[in-house]
Design brief:
By secondary structure, this protein is an alpha+beta fold. It has two helices and seven strands, in the order βαββββββα. The longest helix has 13 residues. The radius of gyration is 14 Å and the shape is globular. The model has no long low-confidence stretch (mean pLDDT 96).
Length: 131
């Protein structure tokens, strides 16, 4: 059963989220730690909706171990085609919701430098580049 919890991120990530007024929930579900970013603004005109919730699974060992993919709810379709973006058509059940997985692997993580801000930049880039 999912449990909403207090922030489990390092201080630098907490500060970044607070300074940017990013609305979050922290959830533990089946021993996975999830950061849910609520009402995340999407690229203008790209999808059938303008905002979505973003889920980032925070792996054990974070911040030395990078988050890998990201997930969205509601599921996004490209406005131009009505289809899902490439590699964004698989579900993940988390916190009582069925999330759309965006398979975007992170091979450029810099331990001791990168954090949630870096991963969010990758999310934004993936959404902007979706086809």
């Amino acid at each position: 059963m999912p449990v909403e919890t207090e922030c489990f991120l390092p201080q630098a990530d907490r500060r970044y989220l607070a300074e940017h007024a990013i609305c979050t929930n922290f959830v533990i579900d089946s021993n996975q730690h999830g950061l849910i970013i609520r009402d995340f603004g999407l690229p203008t005109g790209a999808f059938q909706v303008d905002v979505a919730d973003i889920l980032i699974i925070v792996p054990n060992g974070y911040p030395d171990v990078p988050p890998d993919m990201f997930y969205v709810d509601p599921w996004l379709t490209l406005k131009t085609t009505g289809r899902y973006a490439e590699c964004a058509d698989q579900p993940l059940e988390f916190s009582g919701r069925r999330w759309q997985r965006w398979s975007r692997h992170n091979n450029d993580w810099r331990t001791g430098i990168d954090g949630i801000r870096t991963h969010l930049r990758r999310v934004v880039k993936a959404l902007e580049d979706a086809k």
